[in-house]
Amino acid sequence: MDEEGHIIHIDFGFMLSNSPGGVNFESAPFKLTRELLEVMDSDAEGVPSEFFDYFKVLCIQGFLTCRKHAERIILLVEMLQDSGFPCFKGGPRTIQNLRKRFHLSLTEEQCVSLVLSLISSSLDAWRTRQYDYYQKVLNGIL
């Protein structure tokens, strides 16, 4: 959490190659649960709301900004590839996949459509819900 109360979390391992627990069960581009949607005054279907629309704008802006710095980001990650971190167990494929995620061949307009489709694919994803339930049972929360 930053000084202004924003929550920031990046799971670099998951982003680069390895899934939590080594199980590739999650297939959504990112976690967008019912609870997160409720906070944005939306629901599992992604009903438009001022907050959810703002979330989409921020996702688009964030992706386009990261994309502008893609080569620097990739270089920084490449410098760590011999670190022995589990997220690099895929070898050179890890960096290749990271590069693909920036979609450098797309126009900005195409990237906007891409980000909106990633959001849509992530909306209350069934496999995410199942994995979260599994984790709750496994950790004795339920």
TrEMBL record:
Alphabetically ordered keywords of this record: Kinase, Transferase
GO-annotated biological processes: phosphatidylinositol phosphate biosynthetic process; phosphatidylinositol-mediated signaling
One cellular-component annotation, GO: membrane
A Gene Ontology molecular function term of the record: 1-phosphatidylinositol 4-kinase activity
The PI3K/PI4K catalytic domain, residue ranges: 1-127
InterPro entries tied to this protein: Kinase-like_dom_sf, PI3/4_kinase, PI3/4_kinase_cat_dom, PI3/4_kinase_cat_sf
Classification via Gene3D superfamilies: Phosphatidylinositol 3-/4-kinase, catalytic domain
Cross-referenced Pfam families: PI3_PI4_kinase
PROSITE patterns listed in its UniProt record: PI3_4_KINASE_3
Keyword Transmembrane helix: no
Presence of keyword DNA-binding: no
Protein name: PI3K/PI4K catalytic domain-containing protein
Organism: Acer negundo (Box elder)
